[in-house]
């Protein structure tokens, strides 16, 4: 399969590192004892690519590709297709280098991503319902206008640029045995694997995809394609894996793992709660895989690549609130009361006496399944944990208020 493919080498990655030096962020590699404790790993380190200027690792490969252009190619300009991070990486560095850039994005791309990309000076065209349709259009425009096509992953120069992350890890950490990397098209893990394996061949590389978009997983394992639906990890929702990157992955990667939507969402929440770190769904995929398979990584020195932090603020707010509900720290209780003066105040004082904090309260009098002199109160309450919820319910029922829980997900999972 790989005989006609131009594999980048460790020397190519070192050359890329020299090219991009001072023009991309050499991101921190930070230790996380908390994540090690909850995962069972001996140690966990996070490589924070969410701290790049555009918020993702894509800066590296995009810059390395753009710096390789001839003066004549630079004058003609470049074109790329992307729904987000690659678009911003190409647009930002093209603007810095004075290279005309056109970015083709699917029609359904969130407005904020379109605006952010256009804000870097790129010409943005919305075309196609999917990234694959956008790619077909971008190829056609590239041919018509003689533009250089900047592929998001299936290009040796892109792979070499991403591989500079591996060199930084090797320099920063004397010993580790496992690296977990999010996979979309495979450029990130390919570059890191080449860099790391040259110096430390015993290190095991693990890739992780969203289980709704297992394109590389299925290609490597010779399974039919099975891509579908909406995922929180839109940065790795790739339907067509790279040909070059697949060959590299088959050579250097130990295994490919899949993360469910619940696992990805939980990982985003855990990074904020335990690490004070904002990651997009794709960026949190490495942690999702670690937490999903604790037995596999127990006692190991693990590096997690946090590939990006470009998550919509409204989506992040939803994830955090859902996380509180999942942990039993926000609960909705339906409480039956007699519809008489002073009863609602007594109810509020009873909840307060248990240490619960009422966030919202809804007084329902018009439910037809209630007697006319009864009412239901839906109370949204902030609590300490799931055990505290049980304490509040017990106190309410002992006080003569029949109570049932409406937000029961965490309770069901804890039993």
UniProtKB/TrEMBL annotation:
Keyword Lyase: yes
Pfam families, alphabetized: PALP
Top-level lineage group: Bacteria
Required co-factors: pyridoxal 5'-phosphate
Pathway info: Amino-acid biosynthesis; L-isoleucine biosynthesis; 2-oxobutanoate from L-threonine: step 1/1
Role played: Catalyzes the anaerobic formation of alpha-ketobutyrate and ammonia from threonine in a two-step reaction. The first step involved a dehydration of threonine and a production of enamine intermediates (aminocrotonate), which tautomerizes to its imine form (iminobutyrate). Both intermediates are unstable and short-lived. The second step is the nonenzymatic hydrolysis of the enamine/imine intermediates to form 2-ketobutyrate and free ammonia. In the low water environment of the cell, the second step is accelerated by RidA.
Parts of the chain that traverse the membrane: none
UniProt catalytic activity: L-serine = pyruvate + NH4(+)
Species assigned in the record: Dongia sedimenti
UniProt keyword terms in alphabetical order: Amino-acid biosynthesis, Branched-chain amino acid biosynthesis, Isoleucine biosynthesis, Lyase, Pyridoxal phosphate
EC id: 4.3.1.17, 4.3.1.19
Residues annotated as domain ACT: 332-411
Single GO MF descriptor: threonine deaminase activity
UniProt similarity note: Belongs to the serine/threonine dehydratase family.
UniProt name for this protein: L-serine dehydratase
Coiled coil: none
InterPro entries: ACT-like_dom_sf, ACT_dom, ACT_ThrD-II-like, Ser/Thr_Dehydratase, Ser/Thr_deHydtase_PyrdxlP-BS, Thr_deHydtase_catblc, TrpB-like_PALP, TrpB-like_PALP_sf
């Amino acid at each position: 399969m790989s005989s006609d493919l131009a594999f980048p080498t460790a020397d190519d990655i070192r050359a890329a590192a020299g090219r991009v030096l001072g023009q991309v962020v050499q991101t921190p590699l930070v230790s996380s004892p908390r994540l090690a404790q909850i995962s069972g790993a001996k140690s966990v380190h996070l490589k924070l690519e969410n701290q790049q200027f555009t918020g993702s690792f894509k800066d590296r490969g995009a810059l390395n590709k753009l710096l390789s252009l001839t003066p004549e190619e630079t004058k003609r300009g470049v074109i790329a297709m992307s729904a987000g991070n690659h678009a911003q990486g190409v647009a930002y560095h093209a603007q810095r280098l004075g290279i005309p850039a056109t970015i083709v994005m699917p029609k359904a791309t969130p407005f904020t991503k379109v605006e952010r990309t256009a804000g870097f000076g790129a010409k943005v065209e919305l075309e196609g319902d999917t990234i694959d349709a956008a790619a077909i259009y971008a190829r056609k425009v590239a041919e018509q206008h003689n533009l250089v096509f900047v592929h998001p992953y299936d290009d040796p120069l892109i792979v070499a640029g991403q591989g500079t992350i591996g060199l930084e890890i090797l320099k920063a950490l004397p010993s580790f045995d496992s690296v977990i990397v999010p996979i979309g098209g495979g450029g990130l893990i390919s570059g890191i694997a080449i860099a790391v394996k040259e110096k430390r061949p015993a290190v095991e590389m693990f890739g992780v995809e969203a289980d709704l978009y297992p394109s590389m997983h299925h290609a490597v394992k010779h399974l039919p394609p099975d891509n579908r639906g909406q995922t929180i990890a839109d940065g790795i929702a790739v339907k067509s894996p790279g040909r070059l990157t697949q060959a590299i992955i088959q050579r250097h990667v130990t295994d490919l793992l899949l993360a469910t939507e619940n696992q990805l969402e939980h990982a985003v929440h855990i990074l904020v709660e335990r690490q004070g770190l904002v990651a997009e769904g794709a960026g949190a995929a490495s942690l999702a895989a670690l937490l999903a398979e604790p037995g596999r990584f127990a006692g190991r020195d693990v590096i997690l690549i946090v590939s990006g932090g470009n998550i919509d603020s409204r989506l992040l707010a939803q994830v955090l609130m859902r996380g509180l509900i999942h942990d039993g720290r926000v609960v909705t209780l339906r409480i039956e009361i007699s519809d008489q003066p002073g009863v609602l105040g007594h109810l509020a004082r009873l909840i307060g006496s248990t240490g619960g904090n009422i966030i919202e309260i809804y007084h329902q009098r018009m439910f037809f399944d209630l007697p006319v002199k009864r009412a239901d109160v839906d109370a949204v309450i902030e609590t300490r944990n799931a055990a505290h919820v049980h304490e509040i319910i017990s106190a309410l029922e002992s006080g003569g208020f029949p109570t049932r829980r409406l937000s029961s997900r965490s309770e069901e999972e804890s039993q």
